[in-house]
Amino acid sequence: MQEHLVLYRKYRPRGFNEIVGQESVVRTLSNAIASGRLAHAYLFSGPRGVGKTTIARLIAKAANCANAAKLSSGKLDGALLAHRNTDEGGSTRRSFSEGGLSVPCNTCPSCLLYNDGTALDLIEIDAASNRGIDEIRELRENLRYASSSGGKKTYIIDEVHMLTAPAFNALLKTLEEPPAHVIFVLATTEIHKVPATIISRTQHFEFRRPSVSAIAERLIKISTAERVKLDPAAARVIALAGEGSLRDAESILGQIMAVEDSRITEVEVEETLGLPRREAVMRFYQALVKKETAPALAVIEKIVDDGHDPEQFLRSAIRLSRNAIFLKLDPTLAASVSEELLPEETKELETLLQPVEASHLTRILSRLTAASDQIRISPLPELPLELAALEITKL
């Protein structure tokens, strides 16, 4: 029986040209591969779900790829470019990369082993459950043995900040003088917990959250490959719900595709995820700006009656309030939030905010943010939201 894979595993990038939102990291690493100058140790830091371990696996695959250098320099024979696209369960997947050359090649025997998940030269360690000095000592013992294939062995230590102080000290010695056949890739979501001595002995790359538009574009490509029509507005809502994590956004898409087969609309996404409608959030914010108490409370009552989570609604209102302040204060700041607003929403907000003082908008954001701390402990989830609306509109 064939294994069913979640989307983020099925469509995990097979080459650097499929990575989303990490252009500077990809460019640097591709150049290193092309010149044969991969470092002995890397440190990847950044939010969860942005591609740290995915790129770590690509480094491992590229380090043993027979054609990596030729691909990076564009010198590979065109006959080798038709690579096999299979997911980890062995079934064929449809490719949607941006074209051009794929690095690694995904055609040589080594790459195929990595694609099938059977490569023995890739060792992944979860530091959250292997955080002691005994585990690091065992790792150091294993480092002495070269790869049976004669290539590079890659050790990926995920959540490396979870290691104990003695374990870090043991790892430090290894990073100072690693065997020539070993590459280390350390990954963390909390770089401030990694000792400076470790950071100084690695090449450190900071990963950033992909833009909403980049995530939405990726989701549309995946849905097309799955023969599902995903409306652009729906893709945007899913990207926002993922909160900057491409992996989370892909998981959400898979959840929705399990319910909606042929076409996914914005309304269906909001209903499936239990999200408040965008127009409801906009009506609520308009009432706060205009200091209209009754309409603001009516929106809250409606979202509660419809079964929506007041905390989720408040989070959406805070995001809109933040974006509105940026629109009001400076066109340069406005550009930074344009991805989160539809063109018609931007135009509507600009008209709404024109006669309003910035201090009132700041007060709205401040009061809503304070309500977010209270809503988790309130006996009535909607009460802090109602009190915030009363204070903002009655002041």
UniProtKB/TrEMBL annotation:
EC number of this enzyme: 2.7.7.7
One Pfam family cited in the UniProt record for this chain: DNA_pol3_delta2
GO cellular component, one term: DNA polymerase III complex
SMART domains in the record: AAA
Coiled coil regions in record: none
Gene Ontology biological process terms, A to Z: DNA-templated DNA replication
Self-association state and partner proteins as the record states: DNA polymerase III contains a core (composed of alpha, epsilon and theta chains) that associates with a tau subunit. This core dimerizes to form the POLIII' complex. PolIII' associates with the gamma complex (composed of gamma, delta, delta', psi and chi chains) and with the beta chain to form the complete DNA polymerase III complex.
Protein name: DNA polymerase III subunit gamma/tau
Organism: Candidatus Sungbacteria bacterium RIFCSPHIGHO2_02_FULL_49_12
Lineage start: Bacteria, Candidatus Sungiibacteriota
Gene it is expressed from: dnaX
